[in-house]
Amino acid sequence: MIEMKNFIDGEFVGSGSGTTFENFDPTVGRVYAQVHEASRDDVDRAVKAAQAAMRGPWGRMSIAERSELLLKVADRVNERFDEFLQAECRDTGKPYSLASHIDIPRGAANFKVFADIIRNVPTEAFRMETPDGAGALNYGVRVPKGVIAVICPWNLPLLLMTWKVGPALACGNTVVVKPSEETPATATLLGEVMNEVGVPPGVYNVVNGRGGDSTGEFLTQHPGVDAITFTGETITGTAIMQSAAVGIRDVSFELGGKNAGVVFADADFDQAVDGIQRAVFANCGQVCLGTERVYVERPIFERFVDALKTRAEGLKIGPPDATDTGMGPMVSSQQRNKVLSYYDLARSLGADIVTGGGVPEMGGDYANGFWIEPTIWTGLAEDSPVIKEEIFGPCCHIAPFDDEDEVIAQANATDYGLCTTIWTQDSARTHRVAAQIDVGISWVNCWFLRDLRTSFGGAKQSGIGREGGVHSLEFYTELRNVCVKL
Ligand code: NAD
Ligand code: 6OD
């Protein structure tokens, strides 16, 4: 049995309370690792180690030295690519074909991009007039915030963790990471990398455990934490915000979504089917940017539904290492049960089940994995909970629309506002529609095409703040103004 420990002050340490929890391989539904749960005392040690590193070598390091170290982290992740790939896929069940193109390379790139950005941060300067005529010079200096708590979800564990750890460290902060209890493996492995390349102890710490009334809450409540960055469910964001209110700590939130895909009749049909297929079924639908509501202009509605049905039925469900696997299992039985409850609800509400709606038969070793069928519905009312609530599974509802204003109103009829994907060949419409859908990210004729220098974040209940490129600096630094009388 594999053992996963916490990583505190540069060392792998067991739980102070001696408590461990089980980590499952979702393809077989069996425990494959025991994870050491960080107690309140363990969290306290991690935060204190992070504070000491800020006062110590990390705090004194020049930007160039820090940047060099982060480039080494990126290189080392790439050198150990296969180990990261296997660890991530075992924890999540996702196909190698997906993780080797997105999760692991992006995990490395998140260090490289921010190592580059931090070397080129401009600063502002204002010369002001004074009554004596001599004037004064104001200039801005960006300083790290301090100890950042990084609370992560399970869907893209390495990618979403490094997306925050990369800029946090580049800006000179130290971090205490709380990976999802479902997927602690790659955060643990990254601890080895930090030691291998010489990142000082205490700069990167990992505490494992659950969320509420456990490790996550111990961390967000710790007064030594200066700011909290979180990716996860909106309801969890509410709880974390309450912890952050004590001590007036800053938060950056990337939360849930109920994203709309909008397909106009003039779209390149095959390109739109390809894009929507990925947006609905990639990572078994466990992508915050995924599309669970698809709106298709009426003249192509039936043809589109048929084409997406064919794609869904053609997806080969299987284990990560099979080269023909198009879709893996859900991350946990709990998450699968949640999604299946929506499958039942859609049925009971009278949805037309175009395909799926259940659990596939998997033989042999995989008989007890957390598999689920890709599912498409039509015919539900727009106010149905299936259309209003985030499901986070491989499923979508497709509805026809007749005109642009109608579909914009439908796309906006949600409490969420993370992203949208619009398919049309009319360039004027592209800009008109993108301007009116209330989201943080609009993709046109593409999906999940991400330049790490661009802003990322959600409107409405999908988040607070923006990260990405220079926007990350807003959260991970304080801007200090120095005014010098001349
Ligand atoms: P979750 O909110 O259940 O858990 C996320 C993390 O928060 C876990 O590490 C968990 O242990 C921790 N946590 C839970 N309660 C806590 C508390 N009270 N205090 C401190 N920590 C706590 O989310 P999940 O199920 O892991 O991930 C799926 C959700 O994440 C979906 O809603 C999805 O939309 C969202 N998500 C959003 C983005 C984005 O960029 N907007 C990206 C990925 C996932
Ligand atoms: O690609 C990224 O940078 C990013 N933040 C992706 C988020 C995916 C959510 O599931």
Low-confidence stretches: none
Overall tally of domains: 2
Q: What best-fitting shape do the alpha-carbon axes yield?
A: globular
Reported CATH architecture of the largest domain: 3-Layer(aba) Sandwich
CATH uppermost class of the largest domain: Alpha Beta
Distance between the termini: 67 Å
Q: Strand sequence of the main sheet, in spatial order?
A: 15-16-17-14-13-19-20
Which fold does the CATH topology of the largest domain refer to?
Aldehyde Dehydrogenase, Chain A, domain 1
Give the strand tally: 23
Instruction: Find the structural class using helix and strand composition.
Output: alpha/beta
Task: Return Rg in Å.
Answer: 23 Å
* Chain-averaged pLDDT: 97
Reported for the largest beta sheet, the result is:
7 strands, mixed
Number of helices: 17
- List each distinct ligand once: nicotinamide-adenine-dinucleotide, (2E,4E)-2-amino-6-oxohexa-2,4-dienoic acid
Percent of residues in helices: 25-40%
Going by CATH, the homologous superfamily of the largest domain would be Aldehyde Dehydrogenase, Chain A, domain 1
What percent of residues are in strands? Answer: 15-25%
Outline the structure in words.
The chain is of the alpha/beta class. The chain is built from 17 helices and 23 strands. Helix 11 links the parallel strand 13 and strand 14. The chain is globular and about 70 Å long. The structure holds nicotinamide-adenine-dinucleotide and (2E,4E)-2-amino-6-oxohexa-2,4-dienoic acid. The site of nicotinamide-adenine-dinucleotide (NAD) has 32 residues, from helix 9 and helix 10.
